[in-house]
Amino acid sequence: MSERLDRWADPPLLVLASLADEPKHGYAITRDVAETMGVRLSAGTLYAVISRLESRGLIEPLESEDRRRPYRITMAGAQALAQQSERMSQVARVARERLSIRYGWAPAGGPA
Amino acid sequence: MSEKTRLNDSPAPPHRMLLARAALALYPPAWRARYGDEILALLEESGGGPRAVASLAWRAVPAWVWPPAHLYDRPARMRGSLATVLLAWSMLAGLGLVFAQLTQLQGYRPAGHPVVGWSYPVFDAGFALSALVGAAGGLPLWLLLLRRARREHRTRETAYLLLPVIAPVAFLVAVRVTVSLAGGPGGVSAGWFLAVTLFGFAAAAAAAAGPGLALRRLRPRGQGVRLAAIAAALAMGPMLLAVAASATATLGLYAWASDFAGHRDGVVVGGYLALVAAAATVATVSAARGARAALAGPRGG
Asked: What's the average model confidence in pLDDT over B163-190?
């Protein structure tokens, strides 16, 4: 049985990644995260994360005419996302290399 | 929490939105004012199933315990926390005094149960230490506010600030009058005891609400507020010890003191413990919020 590691997905990172291309409101973020990253964020989790990211200056709210306020990533948020992505790439690279050596594993579409 | 599923959204039915609003009511007012409408809009669009509503309710806990810094200025948070802690602490003190009056002040000791016996001195020490720490930390702020209210001729604020003195004195006078008029060889009747107890809680609430209202109207900032907020958090340590001791003694009497009728009533004991737990939780969370604001960096102080 394969162990699912969904809980390792870091919601703040998912939200920052979702906002990296363009500003989005809450519902658009949950849709984008579900469709592109395969993780569904509940409303409680999403707004706990938005509040924390806003508090740290990593995202900022934009003006809105209705109740769906959009958010955009700040420069500090983009830098934090870039640094974390770099670390994750490093972890992924090490994991791939070791899996390949020990188990002969290759990513889908790659050489066995 | 997050879960890996595909979105299959449909608008939320009205009854579910009612539940979502109820869950949202659990959040701090400032948080609700800032994000409430957005969350409701999101739930209306996404359907907000029972798990989403449950998750929303559960997330209220960290929103209280770790309030986002951008929603509050630090002095306002410290003032709010102080007012809440004062009220909850007073209720705990009242409940503790009722416990003491019904047990140790009547000289009751269930034989052979040292746990219950030891609970009394632990309760006394914790209660006294908590009152001392809270008073020492709050007195400078109280004096500061009293001087300011008098200097600015703010009669109402002065009266609010004097309530912690006036209300206990009024209570003691009421007790004295009740005992002299209605007391017999075995003390006062149960009805009079209940009346005096209720008046005691009202006096405690007034004594705590007075400074809370003054804090709200005078909006002090600076070191006095910081010191009081830190002292309130420190005072909660021994108070929680006293609370644990009174709960231990209450449960001990319930389990072992079969000849002590008042403590064999499960409804009374359960009600008492529920009230104590609620007041202790409110006081502890508020004290932690105030202390975090007081100990944060210099911004906004």
From this structure: 85
